[in-house]
Amino acid sequence: MDDLQLNNIQKHWDTLITSAISWAPRIFTAVISALLIYLIGSWMIRMIKKLVAKGFRKRNMEASLQHFLLNIINWGLNILLFIVVVTQLGVQTSAFVAMIGAAGLAVGLALQGSLTNFAGGILILLLKPFKIGDFISTNSGVSGTVQAIDIFHTKLITPQNQLIIIPNGVVSNNSITNFTQLGTRRTALDIGVAYDADLKQTKEVLMRVIQKNQYALSEPAPQVVVTALGDSAINLSVRVSATTENFWKMNEDLIIDCKEALDEAGIGIPFPQRDIHVYNK
After folding, report:
1. Closest CA relative to residue 74, chosen from 107, 41, 36, 99
2. In the record, which residues are listed under signal peptide (predicted)?
3. Tens digit of pLDDT at every position of the chain (281 positions)
4. 2-91 topology per CATH
């Protein structure tokens, strides 16, 4: 190796050392600044999460919704902190933003059905058309007691002890009957009596049965009304309210006691029948 090559190598080495010395303070400052930003930002994220969680608890928000929203807030703030830190280090963030946008679009297209259920879950948890423990029925014919409300599904337990899992998108976009929310339920027990029965006496007998029922509420007032003249019977409707937890017990007691009271009063409960007339020509 001749002297000229050695001189060139020496010049390049000197230039490298000079550049490193000139850039070292800037790099050191950037690294220290980024580290401070990360530490302060992490502390602020923890504080924000604590304040938000406290606000959620004061509003009595559903636990599953609290957990989900806190996770969303945590991810969002940490992504923002990451972008600020790498920007402080001198890295161009436009590529990161483009990647995040493309990833979000791809995930959204791939999970359209799941996103519908997710949006439905958020609406259910925010608007609270029902809560855990309520007995509900959907217009699809599914009914049961709400066991859990997840972000994507609602779980029901039927009276036959079967677990039904319904997508939240279906629940939020259809009619729901909540039998529990008002605290009381009103029965409409239909009873048919013979055409020769004294209707006033029949109503008095049925009303006495209602008054003796321990679960029947006085408000709203119970009713016994004639509803129709059927093919083989006159139909009456026994309308009584009870608390939600006592509804089925009251309904059963009314059926048994009404039958016994009508039998004692000599009031017949006819069954469907046909009269056949035979003509000899």
Report:
1. 41
2. none
3. 555 555 556 555 556 566 555 555 666 676 777 788 888 888 988 888 888 888 888 877 766 667 667 777 887 888 888 878 777 776 666 666 666 666 665 555 544 556 777 777 778 877 788 888 888 888 877 888 888 887 778 889 988 888 988 888 888 778 888 888 888 888 888 888 888 888 889 888 899 999 888 888 888 888 888 888 887 888 889 999 998 888 889 989 989 998 889 888 888 877 766 667 677 76
4. Helix Hairpins (1.10.287)
Domain layout of the chain by residue ranges:
2-91, 129-178, 184-265
> What is the rounded CA–CA span in Å between residue 108 and residue 131?
29
User: Strand locations in 212-253, DSSP E?
Assistant: 223-229, 234-243
pTM: 0.56
For 191, the 3-state DSSP assignment is strand
Total count of residues recorded for the chain:
281
Regarding the domain delimited by 129-178, which CATH topology (the fold level of the hierarchy) does it fall under? SH3 type barrels. (2.30.30)
Determine if residue 141 is left, alpha or beta; phi over 0 gives left, psi from -120 to 50 gives alpha, anything else beta: left
Answer for the pair 199, 226: CB distance below 8 angstroms, yes or no.
yes
Closest listed residue to residue 118, CA positions, set 76, 70, 172: 172
Sheet strands side by side (includes 234-243): 184-193, 234-243, 223-229
